[in-house]
Amino acid sequence: MHDKTLTELAAGLASGAFSSRELTQAFLARIDRLDGDLNSFISVTAEQALVEADRADAARAAGNIGPLTGVPLALKDLFCTEGVKTSAGSRMLDNFIAPYDATVVEKLRAAGTVSLGKTNMDEFAMGSSNENSFYGPVRNPWDPAAVPGGSSGGSAAAVAAGLVPAAMGTDTGGSIRQPAAFCGITGLKPTYGRVSRYGIIAYASSLDQAGPMARTAEDCAHLLGAIAGHDLRDSTSVARGVPDYTQELDTPLAGLKIGLPKEYFGDGLDPAVESAIREAVKVFESLGATVREISLPHTHYAIPAYYVIAPAEASSNLARYDGVRFGHRCNAPEDLMDLYKRSRAEGFGEEVKRRILMGTHTLSEGFFDAYYKKAQQVRRLIRQDFLDAFDEVDVLMGPASPTPAFDLGARKDPVSMYLQDIYTIAINLAGIPGISVPAGFAGGRPAEGRPVGLQILGAHFAEARLLNVAHQFQQATDWHLRRPALAEETL
Ligand SMILES: NC(=O)C[C@H](N)C(=O)O
């Protein structure tokens, strides 16, 4: 069962081929057997999952069902889940049991899905390799020497290894798309405001957005439909109807106008990644699309702008972890100052501290105009680049990441890690949606056989179009059906 897509599993449940309990048990057994080395889960909530599965089976028997009733999935460990540890990959929240459900979790539960547990991630979603987790690194199912990407690395690895058919991630600067690319799965970052952020542990509030990670675009379409929508508890969620994202999947692509941003094919792009992307573009041409070069002239400002804005917002969001109300508290504090200082020094890891320091500096008096304000102005120019591009073309395409997955421990310098985000970050700054789909494999050592992701970008709220374009590609190719050897293992 583990080799089926979410859509196929939903059909199997509907036809009575298996029950949600059987499905849930099968995936739990796989997690039990295969996750020791992968480390993709922080918490497995087996007991609760079986209760939810039985509830789904009972609902089905009563005829009270939706398209996702009884389907298992997993949640990145920054979605608050009532009564379940929600750590954000940090020692700071290792003892935090969330008192309520995030809106995404509430919606998934209302849709009848079954959560198998919480997946590993870079601490507070800061990272591109999952090496910044308090719970240890995650391994890439395609090659245990490689990272799975980050920060939603646990979600990506769990789906790629067939431990769960789908998982939720979040994307602030690439955290869904880059790990999806590294692990050979499909990951969608929706438009900012499409999905409620209520109950998602905040990193950079003007950029954070939740989205689905699964085998196929079709699976992502079902999941996005379940989690999208306006929420009074998140003032940045947009009051706009949620379409049926599966409806346009089969629309033919004849006449589709594709733009290739020339800045996404420049220095630093791995040749194997480039050739996979160019081959993928040819597939679209064979489906009747036209292709032209586009320029996004402010692209090179995206990383500097993001690494001012994101740490600034993080330094403010993370001020709440003070050891007083919840989270890690140091032993025997001498006074309040000592409590703050030691709780934070012990609770946060190195990268989180680095970003809090950077953010506090750029927001401090005398520096605000030079850094934060300027970065916001640059952000506006970056957004305008995309708006101009979408006057000319329907979608943009390029690589999700400049390289395939790199080796664990290979990038020690934080700047070289930040450069990983070169093709993903501008999308968050502009607030537009983006999807990464499997598009081939790298050749040559050490990346031989590691997946490559094609990134497809659309205008604000063009998710249905992106899913259509991605689905048509998946009808014409089989990259998304390839499995790492680990995932072939049956029980
Ligand atoms: N959170 C993300 O989207 C990942 C990004 N690499 C960051 O560290 O900020």
Please indicate the percent range of residues in DSSP E strands (runs of 2 or more).
5-15%
Secondary-structure element order, N to C: HHEHEHEHEHEEHEHEHHHHEHHEEHH
Structure summary, number of beta strands: 11
State the shape. Answer: globular
CATH fourth-tier homologous superfamily of one domain? Amidase signature (AS) domain
- Number of separate helices: 16
> What is the helix content?
25-40%
Known CATH architecture of one domain: Alpha-Beta Complex
> Unreliable runs, pLDDT <50, ≥5 residues?
none
Could you tell me how far the N terminus lies from the C terminus, measured between alpha carbons in angstroms? 10 Å
The Cα radius of gyration reads 21 Å
According to CATH, what is the class of one domain?
A: Alpha Beta
Given helix and strand content, the structural type is alpha/beta
What is the makeup of the main sheet?
Answer: 11 strands, mixed
**Mean of all residue-level pLDDT scores:** 96
Which ligands are bound?
Answer: asparagine
| CATH topology name of one domain | Amidase signature (AS) enzymes
Q: Describe the strand arrangement of the main beta sheet, using strand numbers.
A: 1-3-2-4-6-5-10-11-9-7-8
Description:
This protein has 491 residues and is α/β, with parallel strands linked by helices. It has a domain at 6-256 and 458-488: Alpha-Beta Complex (Amidase signature (AS) enzymes), CATH 3.90.1300.10. The protein has 16 helices and 11 strands. It has helices at residues 6-15, 20-38, 46-61, 103-110, 153-160, 177-183, 217-227, 271-286, 302-317, 336-347, 350-363, 369-392, 414-418, 425-430, 463-476, 485-488, and strands at residues 41-44, 72-76, 114-119, 166-171, 186-189, 209-214, 257-261, 290-294, 395-399, 434-441, 451-457. An 11-stranded mixed beta sheet has the order 1-3-2-4-6-5-10-11-9-7-8, sandwiched between helices. The structure holds asparagine (ASN). The site of asparagine has 12 residues, from loops.
